[in-house]
């Protein structure tokens, strides 16, 4: 949400339980309505993640979609997250930048963004999760995939044992389980010790995104 301080964003991220990654829905042309529905169902953080069939969106289209999401976040008091690109996060005044293991290094992203943007990291092993829980400049991390997922083809799934290991290790940093999570599998994710989740298809693929988000959010304390 525009205008929040870094401290306010970090507090909201700590309180966040349901994080949604969505594509720009250019084929349906319903991004604003979809985002309003998902956010009204209780999504706390929304990320534009559009890898497209022909590769990631060009910056101009990405920024146009992010502006739509920024307005929806402002309407619902949610956090706006940008995937991969620090320059784009700066341009749209995002709250969050999410970086994977092969993305721009965190110190360089911090050089672009300063301290008032929250930075998250993807992790896929205990060693990476341990590193992300200590690395300077990282505010939160995600761990997974919990199950193999067509949303991230080719990525091996460490599965719930990794979620369990991260939960047992304990960390002061907020962390989210990701990958293959839906309403049916959520109890297993919670049982493994996660309290926050990231989803894509469970909401983007739902006939009623508000109801799908509400059903997930209602089971996340
Ligand atoms: C919230 C969140 N968690 C994980 C990812 C995955 O990031 P990454 O490994 O860099 O893969 P891509 O999404 O860039 O394909 C994410 N984007 N968001
Ligand atoms: C974008 C992404 N990152 C992952 C990781 O493990 O870092 S798994 C994933 C895709 C999650 O999509 P769905 O909820 O549709 O399975
Ligand atoms: Mg990435």
Automatic annotation (TrEMBL):
2-[(2R,5Z)-2-carboxy-4-methylthiazol-5(2H)-ylidene]ethyl phosphate binds at residues 149-151, 180. Keywords: Magnesium, Metal-binding, Thiamine biosynthesis, Transferase. It catalyses: 2-[(2R,5Z)-2-carboxy-4-methylthiazol-5(2H)-ylidene]ethyl phosphate + 4-amino-2-methyl-5-(diphosphooxymethyl)pyrimidine + 2 H(+) = thiamine phosphate + CO2 + diphosphate; 2-(2-carboxy-4-methylthiazol-5-yl)ethyl phosphate + 4-amino-2-methyl-5-(diphosphooxymethyl)pyrimidine + 2 H(+) = thiamine phosphate + CO2 + diphosphate; 4-methyl-5-(2-phosphooxyethyl)-thiazole + 4-amino-2-methyl-5-(diphosphooxymethyl)pyrimidine + H(+) = thiamine phosphate + diphosphate. It holds the Pfam family TMP-TENI. CDD domains: TMP_TenI. Residues 18-203 form the Thiamine phosphate synthase/TenI domain. Pathway: Cofactor biosynthesis; thiamine diphosphate biosynthesis; thiamine phosphate from 4-amino-2-methyl-5-diphosphomethylpyrimidine and 4-methyl-5-(2-phosphoethyl)-thiazole: step 1/1. This is Thiamine-phosphate synthase. It comes from Amycolatopsis minnesotensis. The gene is thiE.
């Amino acid at each position: 949400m525009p205008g929040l301080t870094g401290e306010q964003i970090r507090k909201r991220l700590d309180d966040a339980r349901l994080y949604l990654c969505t594509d720009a829905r250019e084929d349906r042309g319903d991004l604003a309505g979809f985002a309003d529905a998902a956010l009204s169902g209780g999504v706390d953080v929304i990320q534009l993640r559009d890898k497209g069939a022909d590769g990631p969106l060009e910056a101009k289209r990405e920024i146009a979609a992010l502006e739509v999401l920024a307005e929806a976040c402002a309407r619902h008091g949610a956090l706006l997250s940008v995937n991969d690109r620090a320059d784009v996060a700066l341009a749209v005044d995002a709250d969050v930048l999410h970086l994977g293991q092969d993305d721009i290094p965190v110190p360089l992203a911090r050089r672009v963004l300063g301290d008032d943007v929250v930075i998250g990291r993807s992790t896929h092993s205990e060693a990476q999760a341990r590193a992300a829980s200590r690395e300077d400049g990282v505010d939160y991390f995600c761990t997974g995939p919990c199950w193999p997922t067509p949303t991230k083809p080719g990525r091996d799934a460490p599965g719930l044992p990794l979620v369990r290991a991260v939960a047992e290790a304990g960390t002061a940093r907020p962390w989210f389980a990701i990958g293959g999570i839906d309403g049916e599998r959520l109890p297993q994710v919670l049982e493994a010790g996660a309290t926050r989740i990231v989803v894509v298809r469970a909401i983007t693929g739902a006939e009623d995104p508000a109801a799908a988000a509400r059903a997930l959010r209602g089971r996340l304390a």
